[in-house]
Design a protein that fits this description.
Blueprint lengths: L2 E6 L7 H11 L3 E5 L17 E6 L19 E6 L4 E3 L9 E8 L2 E9 L6 H15 L6 E7 L22 H16 L2 E2 L7 E5 L2 E5 L2 E5 L5 E7 L9 E6 L12 E4 L6 H11 L11 H18 L2 E4 L1
Parallel strand pairs: 1-2, 7-8
Antiparallel strand pairs: 1-14, 2-4, 3-4, 5-6, 6-7, 8-12, 9-12, 10-11, 13-14, 15-16
Helix pairs in contact: 2-3
Length: 315
Amino acid sequence: SLKLFYTNADGLCNKLDELRMMIKQKCVDIICVTESHFHADILEAEVQLEGFTLYRKDRDFKINDESSKEVSGKGGSVIYVRNDLPQEKDEIFLNAPDSVAVKIVTDKGTVCIACVYRSQALSENQNQQLIECINSACHESNPCETIVVGDFNLPDVCWNNSISLPAGMDSNNKLLVQQAQFVGCFNDLGLSWVLTSEITRRRLVGGILQESSFDQILMNNEGLVNGHKIFSPLGKSDHSSILVHLGVSRCNELKNEIIQKKSWSKISADEILDFSVKNIEWEYSCDDLDVEDMVNELNSNLQKIEDKIPTDRFY
């Protein structure tokens, strides 16, 4: 299967040699890095990796002020993909700040891989642009399966059993409100995630160790990921590196063993109720049905509801 490496590098230029060594040791096919800190004065030839195609999104805006012509420093994301994989840039993330995406043809079809960096200092409009891009990429109307990796900077989100924020959220807290918008987006899309309680960022602040879970791997089909391993950061970055074993392989020959499964998380209870009220006649066809006929009619109506449920491709 294909292997994907992800990390927040906190500046990649001075860590490229270490990255080259890592991809040889781990036999990596796809590399996603947030906070590349690349800018317009850095030529692609300076940051290229032999045998890989580079896709980059340098920060091209001013944090919290998109009307300004100035550009804030740092930020940015890059994706490197092995040259022998059929690929192209995915324009679906064109308007997303500090984020980039690529489409790769695999043995199970085309997969979109997006690399996202969300600064907590983004404006409301910039956050909304990112949410809209994630929604477009992961929505069931998109024929591609999608994996979104990155540093989402959602420190208050609990990933254990569901994606949620602490109870009693202060609606006047701007940062919590922004986090709630992303939680709502992920839940509405029925996304699955890889990391639960793992710590992905450690740093000392005033002699006190801070531990956070800012990084995440999201997907609209849980069959896209077979496993993962967390290991040491690149250089002096305070973010761990993550090696992801994907559930897809090189496209030597398209395989047909794709199973359709129902994805109940992609439809709300209100939508199911509305459909059943408008489209199903719940009264029995006559008053003298025996028990078997009643059960058969009930099962037929329940099957109509099940047919309404969106499906995922399961590998």
